[in-house]
Amino acid sequence: MLDLERRGLLGGIPVADFERNRNAIRREVEELAWNPALQTYTQVLNGDTLDASLLLLGWYGFAEPRQPRMRSTFARIRERLEAAPGLFYRYEESRSAGEGAFGICSAWACDFLARGGGTLEDAERCFEQLLQFANDVGILAEEIDPVSGAPLGNLPQAFSHAGVVSAALAIEERRRGAEALP
Q1: Most CB contacts within 10 A, which of 39, 85, 100, 125?
Q2: What residues contact 173, with CB distance under 8 A and at least 6 apart?
Q3: What is the DSSP letter of 52?
Q4: What contacts 93, CB < 8 A, 6 or more positions away?
Q5: pLDDT digits (tens, 9 = 90+) for 23-55
Q6: How far apart are alpha carbons 110 and 84 in whole angstroms?
Q7: Terminal CA-CA length for the chain
Q8: CB-hemisphere CA count at 13 Å for 9?
Q9: For residue range 53-110, what is the model confidence (pLDDT) as tens digits?
Q10: Cα(92)–Cα(182) distance, integer angstroms
Q11: For residues 128 and 12, what is the distance between their CA atoms, to the nearest angstrom?
Q12: CB 117 within 8 A of CB 160
C-alpha cells in the first residue's frame, strides 16, 4: 500500500503512521519472537515453540532467507518439525497429536531453500521429495502420513498445490540465476 501511495496511485494514506507501526512491529518481533537460547524465531512472542509458517518470513519480505537468523530458524525447524525427508509438520504439537505432515509446510521449506535459505540443489531435492507423495495423477493431500506416505485429510488440497506452485516458481527463478527473489 505504501508503494502505491508513493507512486501516486493512492492518496490520503497516512504513510508516516504506517511506517511507524511497521517499524514497531518489526522491533517487537526481533526482540520478543527471537529466542536467543534456541537461535530461532518462535511461534509466539517470548516463546520456545516453532511453527513451520516461520519459513514464510522470507516470502513476505520480513527477513532474507540467507540471513543467519533465518538459516538458524530453518535448522531448528528441521530438528523439530521435519517428519521425514521432504515432509514437515506445521506445529510441534502435530507429532504428538497423531497428525500427518502438512503438504504446504513441506512446500514452504522448498520455497525457503530456493529463495536463498539453501542451495539450488537443496531446494530441488526437497521439491522432488515432496512430489513423491503426490498420487498417480499428481494430486497432493492436505496431510501426508510420514511413515506410510498415505494421503490424509482433504484430497485434493488447494493449499498444498498453491505451495507447490510457489516453490516451483522460486526454484525456476533460482535456476535462472536470480539472487534475490521478489
Answers
A1: 100
A2: 114, 181
A3: G
A4: none
A5: 999 999 999 999 999 999 999 999 999 999 999
A6: 14
A7: 16
A8: 5
A9: 999 999 999 999 999 999 999 999 999 999 998 899 999 888 878 889 999 999 999 9
A10: 30
A11: 47
A12: no
- Grouping H, G, I as helix, E, B as strand and the rest as coil, residue 102 is strand
- Per-residue cell: 4: 502505491
- Domain coordinates in residue numbering, the chain: 48-175
Query: What is residue 111's three-state secondary structure?
Result: helix
Buried b (16+ CB within 10 A) or exposed e, 62-96: ebbbeeeebbebbebbeebbbbeebbbbbbbebee
How many Cα atoms sit within 13 Å of 165 on the Cβ side?
Answer: 7
| C-alpha cell of residue 69 | 537468523
Residues in contact with 44: Cβ distance below 8 Å, sequence separation at least 6, in sequence order:
33
Q: What is the pTM of this model?
A: 0.88
In this structure, which amino acid lies at residue 21?
N
Task: Please give the grid coordinates belonging to residue 107.
Answer: 512446500
Yes or no: say if 142 and 152 are a contact pair by the CB < 8 Å rule: yes
Of 138, 16, 111, residue with least CA distance to 56: 111
